Amino acid sequence: MLRTNGAMSLGRTWFSIVLLCGGALLGTGCGGGGDNPSTAAVSGKVTRQGQPVSGGTVTFSPQASADKKGPPGKPAAGVVGPDGTFKLTTYAKDDGAVLGKHQVIYLPAPIEIDEAQHKEDSPPPVSPFAGLKPSQTEVEVKAGSNTIDIDLVPGS
Description:
Layout: H1 2-28, E1 39-40, E2 42-48, E3 51-52, E4 57-62, E5 76-79, E6 85-87, E7 97-98, E8 100-107, E9 132-134, E10 138-141, E11 146-147, E12 150-154
Parallel strand pairs: 2-11, 2-12
Antiparallel strand pairs: 1-7, 2-3, 2-6, 4-5, 4-8, 8-10, 9-12
């Protein structure tokens, strides 16, 4: 009888250890979502000579800060709509960009080639926005909602 009690006691002990460890693992999670830097909503409009730019992508690339250790965070990007407006996304749709200073990059949308009219030896069509860059290449994203308009100028 003593032997049976010991086996049952040992079984309960192992069960308790497994349950405790399993609960600890579940409590820590596996996404690491709490480690992401804070973001703030960023939206705006891309223009060229006061007119909206249609298409392309805006990217905000976080810059390292002297007072912060570690990487500055993940870049944010947004598609420029037909009316020139954009909303940035970093970790989740439209969550904005990480707080701090960013380099601003604009990439024009690719131009579709009409195979029927395009000759093999002719150069590919060029976007009317190719070679343009943001007039303000560095911006700061602050806590709260940010409206950051981007005016494109000829690149150097």
